[in-house]
Amino acid sequence: MNRDRGVTGPSGFKAAGVAAGIKESGALDLALVVNEGPGQAAAGVFTTNQVKAAPVLWSQQVLRERRLRAVVLNSGGANACTGPEGFQDTHATAEKVAAVLDVGAIEVAVCSTGLIGERLPMDDLTAGVDKAAAELAATDRAGLDAATAVMTTDTHPKQSFQAHPDGWSVGGFVKGAGMLSPNMATMLSVITTDAALDGDALDAALRRVTARTYDRLDVDGGTSTNDTVLLLASGASGVTPDPEEFAKTLEAVAGDLVKQLQGDAEGVTKEVAITVTGALTEAEAVEVAKTVAEDNLVKTALFGSDPNWGRIAMAVGRSRATVDQHRLSIAINGVTLFADGHKAADRAEADLSGRDVDIVVGLGLGDGTATVLTTDLSHAYVEENSAYSS
Amino acid sequence: MNRDRGVTGPSGFKAAGVAAGIKESGALDLALVVNEGPGQAAAGVFTTNQVKAAPVLWSQQVLRERRLRAVVLNSGGANACTGPEGFQDTHATAEKVAAVLDVGAIEVAVCSTGLIGERLPMDDLTAGVDKAAAELAATDRAGLDAATAVMTTDTHPKQSFQAHPDGWSVGGFVKGAGMLSPNMATMLSVITTDAALDGDALDAALRRVTARTYDRLDVDGGTSTNDTVLLLASGASGVTPDPEEFAKTLEAVAGDLVKQLQGDAEGVTKEVAITVTGALTEAEAVEVAKTVAEDNLVKTALFGSDPNWGRIAMAVGRSRATVDQHRLSIAINGVTLFADGHKAADRAEADLSGRDVDIVVGLGLGDGTATVLTTDLSHAYVEENSAYSS
After folding, report:
1. A217 and A119 in one domain?
2. Fewer CB within 10 A of the terminal residue: chain B, N end or C end?
3. Where is this site: Involved in the stabilization of negative charge on the oxyanion by the formation of the oxyanion hole (chains A, B) (predicted)?
4. Cis status of the peptide bond prior to B241, with omega within 30 of 0
5. Which of B317, B340, B387 sits opposite A304 (nearest CB)?
6. B50 and chain A in contact, CB less than 8 A
């Protein structure tokens, strides 16, 4: 994986990131990603939250056509819970981008992230679109600027790129912490490819891959009003890849972006992988893993480097999946601490002094398996989230 | 409500709390509550967790008869995830109490709380039963000792008592923080009454009342392996109350005990009541309120005294209940901050400087209403739960 390249890695894409003045800090806050074709196929996956921000409502509508010429993204405001006026702001943003690029507004997706409930400063935003359009470039630097402009409490921009031997590639950026379970206002991600694929193929690949990557990072169970993952294909490579090969490369890039989200989650001191095996189904394995991932007693014990398998057993038992305590086993960092209904080893044998924690929960009931990534619950998490409004 | 009296408030009951040496600290750790009759009707409500501690499995079995002569409780060890040997320990404990009191083991319920996965020191526990039996008394002091002996991270014993004008009364104690959602190893509660009621009447009243009290405190979504609420009736008053009257008094005592749990929850700096109105059903109102109560972004904002209604809207939207963002309203401490899809007032108008926070979420869809109590997520919560093994 190459983390120095992102959305401008695949050919046919230009990007820009500028300071539009939406953030009071003067930091970069507006990004533009443009697909120069020849293809314009696209797909999107959006938050399942019933309270959806204006840009999500707009982009969902736009993506019905499975075609995109551009994506405009801003940090500094989520444009959520802003009523019809907020929706008009999103619409006006798309119209502005369409006018500047000489495309249709229906070909422009919009993403926003930041505080909920406040209107966006539209004059700043509109001027920012002009500025970004003037700076559009296919360089790595332009891709990095775009990745930087969407950051909120992220400490660094997050990109990933992978080239396939057959002559096409996939690249992208992400901000936030976890599709369907972000720990801040929003998780946004834009992925590009120069493979020649139609919208249906992109949609199928994106849904399959997000279910196994973005959906399996769970920092605190939250699902934001704005979560969006977009996939754009320029077809500039002229190569139409085998669907399996494409999904594999897409999953590699998405997985790498998600790993970066985990490592930069608010207050993280432990990067935790929870693997559940032996569930009745894969969906039940995910259910158990997410219940453990979201359990504050488990998360605080991990922050304390305490291999407290009893709290894990408690969390497993309260999940909605089928569990039999007599078949349950729990291993932490390679040491089986609980098996066959008994303590199997002294908890002190599991070493949690490092940053990486590997928890394996065996249910002993079936073939369902899944891994969910999470973090611990630290003082820094409480500090960031009690002091920062998002 | 009288918080100076508890299980020995109603006539027909004796209690004791002793230091049996289960806790290394030498603190009180074994409690006995004995029903001297003439009636022995009883009812119990237990954890929904699929991983159930040995004492829960035992007491569920015993309560099928809806008769109890005694309850023995210990802190210092949960006796959960301890296999058949742990169950034998519980059985032996009941047999010991039965022998000392000259009753049947099937008339003795057992409750435990503390660390999961460790066997109990049975010699200490058995000697403790002898000691407690010798100290049994009907005094307020004896009831307080019993309430004290079940404490783990509780900072004070929690009792409540209410006498009914018709000559009967209800009293009880509780430890932990929240049936179905405790923030430590376990929530245990024993309630007594001298009303003359049979087991079926007690069971009906207890289920109805716990659903509206213990089940509506949600500190961190956890549901322990050991959660138990027991209700014992001596009939010593000779009065059989009207079922509605009895449920009302029982709910007053249970509600007061739950309020004390909330106030003593780990790391609490805010006592938060989340009321949801206008849900399609009462169950959906509970679902929405619990999703808000368990949301770490909401809880950390409250710790920061930030009336961040956007995070509340986010949590409401991700609940499994039906939500329409255009009908949603949110008020904090009496100030409506969001209504009709818009910001309704500046967040600064809601004053969160005090300890009590009152959140009202209006869904505008139906008649379902519920209130769930919770706390904020503070540095002290992280500290206690990362440093204390439970």
Report:
1. yes
2. N
3. 113-114
4. no
5. B387
6. yes
Domain check: are B28 and B128 in the same one? yes
Instruction: Name the residue type at position B295.
Output: D
Domain enclosing residue B76, as ranges: 13-263
Q: Is B383 on the interface with A (CB under 8 A)?
A: yes
The answer to whether residues A103 and A208 belong to one domain is yes
Residue A283 has what pLDDT? 96
Partner residue opposite A341 with nearest CB, options B50, B83, B115: B83
Q: What is the mean pLDDT of chain A?
A: 94
d(CA B139, CA B156): 19
Helix, strand, or coil (residue B35):
strand
Q: Is A249 a catalytic residue?
A: no
CB-based contact A79:A53 (threshold 8 Å): yes
Of A184, A224, A318, the CB nearest to B223: A318
Q: Which of B186, B210, B277, B374 is catalytic?
A: B186
Question: What does the buried/exposed string (b/e) look like for A95-132 if buried means 16 or more CB atoms within 10 Å of the residue's CB?
Answer: ebbbebbebebbbbbbbbbbbbbbbbbeebbbbbbebb
Q: What is the domain count for chain A?
A: 2
Same domain, A227 and A275: no
**Alpha-carbon distance A146 to A348, whole Å?**
46
Range B91-111 average pLDDT: 98
pLDDT value for B183: 47
Do B9 and B173 form a contact (C-beta atoms < 8 A)?
no
> Does A162 have pLDDT greater than 80?
yes
- CATH number of the domain encompassing residue B139: 3.60.70.12
> Is A390 annotated for ligand binding?
yes
Task: Report the alpha-carbon distance of residue A37 to residue B305 in Å, rounded.
Answer: 50
Q: First vs last Cα of chain A: how many Å apart? A: 31
In sequence order, which residues have a C-beta less than 8 Å from that of residue B65 and are 6 or more positions away?
Answer: B106, B107, B199
B381 — pLDDT class (breaks 50, 70, 90): confident
Q: Is the pLDDT of residue B388 over 80?
A: no
pLDDT of residue A153: 84
User: How do residues B200-247 score in pLDDT, each as one tens digit?
Assistant: 999 999 999 999 999 898 887 778 899 999 999 999 999 999 999 999
- Domain boundary (B263, B293, B325) is at B263
Do residues A154 and A266 make contact, with C-beta atoms less than 8 angstroms apart? no
Identify whether B157 is part of a domain.
yes
Q: By the 8 A CB rule, do A261 and A157 touch? A: no
pLDDT in tens, A135-160: 999 999 999 999 999 998 899 999 99
Q: How confident is the model at residue B137 (pLDDT cuts 50, 70, 90)?
A: very high
DSSP string, B135-181: H-BSSHHHHHHHHHHT-SS-SS-EEEEEE-TTS-EEEEEEESS-TTS
User: What CATH number should be reported for the domain holding residue A340?
Assistant: 3.10.20.340
Tell me whether residue A4 is in a domain: no
Cβ–Cβ contact A58 with B under 8 A: no
Per-residue pLDDT tens over the stretch B276-308: 999 999 999 999 999 999 999 899 999 999 999
Better pLDDT: B181 or A6: A6
A168 plus A307 within the same structural domain: no
B46 touches chain A (CB under 8 A): no
Question: How many angstroms separate the CA atoms of A230 and A210, rounded?
Answer: 10
Whether residue B2 is contained in a domain is answered as no
Do B289 and B246 lie in one domain? The reply is no
CA atoms within 13 A on the CB side of B40: 17
b/e sequence A48-62, b meaning 16+ C-beta within 10 Å: ebbbbbbbbbbbbeb
Within-domain flag for A6 = no
Q: Are residues B219 and B291 in the same domain?
A: no
**What residues have CB less than 8 Å from B269, skipping those under 6 apart?**
B303, B355, B375, B376, B378, B380
The tens digit of pLDDT for each residue in A342-381 reads 899 999 999 999 999 999 999 999 999 999 999 999 998 8
Q: Which tokens go with B323?
A: 């939500």
